[in-house]
């Protein structure tokens, strides 16, 4: 269509290069910041994995993290912009403040993690006892008296 006299070889390469340079000037900092965040997350995960290999109790933190991800988040009671209602909703309950709702959510997560370990102990036949020697969890009364 166009002869080589009007559009020489490599014309579209230089046009594309110019567009890329303009785009980099506009969005370059955001792209670099994005990759820096990814790199920091990778380093944090690597450091956490190293710490977990050294800590014999890291499995409990991992269990709590798993239950924390599965549990629904606390929501603000009033969702309208500019609303200053301090109440919060979690698990279909209304709490007076967001701090109370977060505390209830966190208690729920810890109880679920603790129950998980009690169920594991029960499954493998280990007896879990409370502070005064009473058996925690299900089972017969005869097992609790042992």
- SSE pattern, N- to C-terminal: HHEEEHH
Fraction in beta strands: 5-15%
Helix share bin:
55-70%
Mean pLDDT across all amino acids: 83
Principal-axis shape = elongated
**Tally of DSSP β-strands:** 3
> How many discrete structural domains?
2
List the uncertain runs. 139-146
Helix vs. strand class: mainly alpha
The largest sheet, given as strand count, sense and whether it forms a barrel, is: 3 strands, antiparallel
Count of helical regions: 4
Rg value:
29 Å
> What's the end-to-end separation, in Å?
95 Å
How are strands sequenced across the largest beta sheet? 1-2-3
What does this structure look like?
With 146 residues, this protein is mainly alpha-helical. It is built from four helices and three strands; from the N terminus they run H-H-E-E-E-H-H. It has helices spanning 11-54, 58-70, 98-123, 141-145, and strands spanning 75-76, 88-90, 93-95. A three-stranded antiparallel β-sheet has the order 1-2-3, covered by helices on one side.
């Amino acid at each position: 269509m166009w002869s080589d006299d009007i559009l020489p070889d490599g014309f579209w390469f230089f046009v594309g290069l110019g567009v890329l340079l303009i785009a980099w000037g506009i969005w370059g900092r955001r792209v670099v910041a994005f990759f820096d965040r990814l790199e920091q997350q990778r380093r944090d995960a690597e450091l956490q994995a190293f710490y977990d290999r050294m800590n014999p109790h890291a499995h409990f933190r991992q269990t709590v993290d798993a239950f924390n991800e599965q549990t629904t988040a606390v929501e603000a009671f009033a969702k309208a912009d500019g609303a200053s209602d301090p109440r919060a909703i979690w698990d279909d309950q209304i709490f007076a403040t967001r701090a109370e709702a977060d505390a209830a959510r966190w208690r729920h997560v810890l109880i679920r993690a603790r129950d998980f370990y009690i169920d594991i102990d029960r499954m493998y036949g280990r007896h879990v006892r409370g502070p005064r020697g009473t058996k925690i969890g299900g089972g017969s009364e005869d097992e609790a008296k042992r």
